[in-house]
Amino acid sequence: MTDWRGNVETGVSAWLGGDERPASHNGVTRGSVRGDPAPEDLLVDVETAGPDADPESVARKILLDQLTGRARTRSELADKLRQRRVPEEIAIRLLDRFTEVGLVDDAAFARQWVESRQSSRGLARRALADELRRKGVDAEVVREAVDEVDAGAEEAAARTLVRKKLPSLRRVDSATATRRLVAMLARKGYPPGLAFAVVREELGAVPHDDAHDDPHDTT
After folding, report:
1. Triad 127, 128, 130: Cα angle to 5°
2. Both 186 and 199 in a single domain?
């Protein structure tokens, strides 16, 4: 059997079969690159689908629509089915089946999320863990995913963030620059010790005007 675990597009194709793909999936990625559902999809739920509609088929379509475009966690999908008034027993059965075949894989989702958010946003492990928990990922799965972020890579990401911000702070005094930079790193989930160490070293490499404090500083 083809191993599509964690590969949503391949998994959806395998589930549906080449000739059985409904119109909403034939060569069209629904919603935006973030996987947001198309407007018409928002109207589909078990109660509005009509008296002749099979609730399980409607629920399956909701799940496939949600998964076309990007992966989602089991908790996110369960919430969506609940919003669309899918009976709980049907939701559990379908989610178990989707998990079994790899269309829903929280561990793969967590790894991909950490890699993407750490590289694109420079988030530290704490912030990444917070985001995954908000998406309903199990605590142990979260821990395993964020533990894959190397401490050296985390420090390098912090330095990159600081260096990008430094040009806008060249005309403020070092105390103000330190407060702003440390606050920025804190929002990204970096611990205080690492944040202060990185900021101190990076500030030491550039000149700052210590004679004039920034009158607009509110940090």
Report:
1. 65
2. yes
The rounded distance, in Å, linking the Cα atoms of 68 and 78 is: 16
Same domain, 15 and 89: yes
84-102 CB burial, b ≥16 within 10 A, e <16: bebeeebbeebbeebeeeb
In a domain, 219, yes or no: no
Q: What pLDDT, in 10s, does the model give residues 30-87?
A: 333 344 444 444 445 655 555 556 889 999 999 999 999 889 999 999 999 999 999 9
Q: What is the pLDDT of residue 59?
A: 93
pLDDT value of residue 55: 86
Radius of gyration of the chain (CA): 23
Q: What angle do CA 56, 22, 82 make, to 5 degrees?
A: 35
DSSP 70: S
Among residues 144, 151, 108, the alpha carbon closest in space to that of 129 is found at 144
173: containing domain: 151-203
pTM of the model: 0.71
